[in-house]
Amino acid sequence: MSSQTPASPRMTANRVQSKKGKEKIVCLTAYDYFSATFADAAGVDVILVGDSLGNVIQGHSSTLPVTLDQMVYHTEIVARAAKRALVVADMPFGSYQVSTSQAVDSAIQLMRAGAGAVKLEGPYYSEVQAILKAGIPVMAHIGMTPQSVHALGGFKVQGKTESDGERLLLELRALQESGAFAVVLELIPSELSERLTRETLMATIGIGAGVGCDGQIQVFHDLLGITPHHLKHAKRYGEIGQAMQDAIAAYVGEVKSASFPTKDNSF
Ligand code: KIV
Q1: Is the pLDDT of residue 254 over 70?
Q2: What digits encode the pLDDT tens for the residues 144-197?
Q3: How far is the centre of ligand 1, averaged over its atoms, from the C-alpha of 202 (Å)?
Q4: Catalytic site residues?
Q5: 141 C-alpha to center of ligand 1: Å?
């Protein structure tokens, strides 16, 4: 008989939703094996393979160029690392907007890659329903939806006026009705996010939406201080970008001065 304590149970969409009102839900993006391993070991509940990889992995200025094949590739890698966290795969731009059958096909590819749920942006109610009908849990995403950056006129806080707040409330209700288990609230005033959180049975996951949400999500590179810019909605818990730059500079210096490798690194 093993004396080890049993490992904490694998997170599922149901388990994430059942934390609502009881325990904060911790979410973080990851795109590769070691970042996902670190997130999983630290107790992150949901690892999102975000299409933000377009920005932080590929160096684009938006998420629009990210393809479904690329999301499948990164989802496979992250799923290999995640032992406890729920892996949610983002549906990239152009993979669900054409038709419900396109949305279901795309979601199936992401689930085959190892995801436990998918996320899509905006008021795609019949797509959420169709994906759910295929047995796939869906996380929704409202507020600042980066795939619509051109229509929204930039990365701006949403729901600042009463009528825009009402629009978000209607979207929230319809997404719940469609069966989404959770919803990302991005760049939404705190007071409105609190109201949205109270109004829904879905777990609300905030980014730039205040502390009143059921959980929080951050982009891996922002959290660790790898991205150079300081974003108001993000907190840098490390300065890993500078640490990497310093380490590489030290390596460059030691190779040039022939102080690396030493005998210890040689055979
Ligand atoms: O792609 C992403 O990383 C996201 C989060 C910022 C919510 O959608």
Answers
A1: yes
A2: 999 999 999 999 999 999 999 999 999 999 999 999 999 999 999 999 999 999
A3: 18
A4: 186
A5: 9
Q: Which of 27, 35, 47, 51 to mutate to test the pocket of ligand 1 (most atoms within 8 A of CB)?
A: 51
Structure tokens at 31: 């795109």
CB of residue 145 inside a 6 A radius of ligand 1: no
Same domain for 18 and 144, yes or no, is yes
Give domain status of residue 74, yes or no: yes
Residue with the smallest CA separation from ligand 1 atom 2 is 50
Do 262 and 170 lie in one domain? The reply is: no
- Whether 196 and 259 map to the same domain: the answer is no
Complete DSSP assignment for 45-105: SEEEE-TTHHHHTT--SSSTT--HHHHHHHHHHHHHH-SSSEEEEEPPTTSSSS-HHHHHH
Q: Find the domain containing 249 and state its range.
A: 239-267
* CATH number of residue 177's parent domain: 3.20.20.60
pLDDT value of position 9: 85
CB 209 within 8 A of CB 188: yes
Q: Percent of the chain having pLDDT more than 70?
A: 97
